[in-house]
Amino acid sequence: MYCARVCLTLFFSACVLFPLSVDGSQVDIRVPHGFEFGTSRKDAINLIDSSSVKLVSDNKYSNNLRKIILDGSIAGVILEPPPRHETRLEFYKNKLMSSSILFSFKDESSFTLAKNELFGNLVDILGGTFKRERMFSYEVLTWDLSETFVIANLNPKKKTIEIEYVHKPILEKKVAKDLRRKRRGDPGDPAKQMFIDNNFSVQKK
Length: 205
Description:
Largest sheet: 8 strands, antiparallel
Order of helices and strands: HHEEEEHEEEEHH
C-alpha cells in the first residue's frame, strides 16, 4: 500500500513538474516550474512575494547573469513522503533563461524509487529520444526539444535529482556574446567557464 501511494504521488508530481496543455498531449514548456521563460527578475520576485515560498538567495554573477534560489516551489510538488527541494532560476539580461528543481533524498531507497518513476514519466511525456551521459558519480539525461533543453541530473552519491529547463533562444544570445568576447581575446571570468562552455548551470558544491 505504501509503495502504491508513493508511485501515485510521484505520477502527480511529474504532472506538476511538466504541466500539460489543454489537450493533454503536449508539455507546456514555456512556463517551467511556475515561471514563464523571458520573464523579468522583478516579475519573478513579485510572484515569489505573493506566494508562501521563501527566497533563499538572489545573487548577481555579472552585469548580465543572475541566479535566484527558492526554498520549495511555486508550482508545488506532490511526493509522499515529501523530499526537501528548491527551485533555481537563472536570468540572462534580466530574462529568465533556465529553471530547475533540485530534490534531495534522505536515503538510497527513496532516491531510487523517485529516479525510476520520474525517468519513466519523462520518457512518456518528452519521448524516448534523449542523450545519456555519465560523469563521475552522476548521470545526465538531456532532451533536445525545439526551443528547450530538458536536463535530468541524477546523483546517487548525493541522493539528488535535478530537473532543469533551458530556453534555447535566450541561451543562444548568451553563447553568441561569449563567442564575441573570446574572439576579442577577453579571458572573462574563469570561475564561470563551466557555465559558458555548454554547462547550463553553475557547478554546484
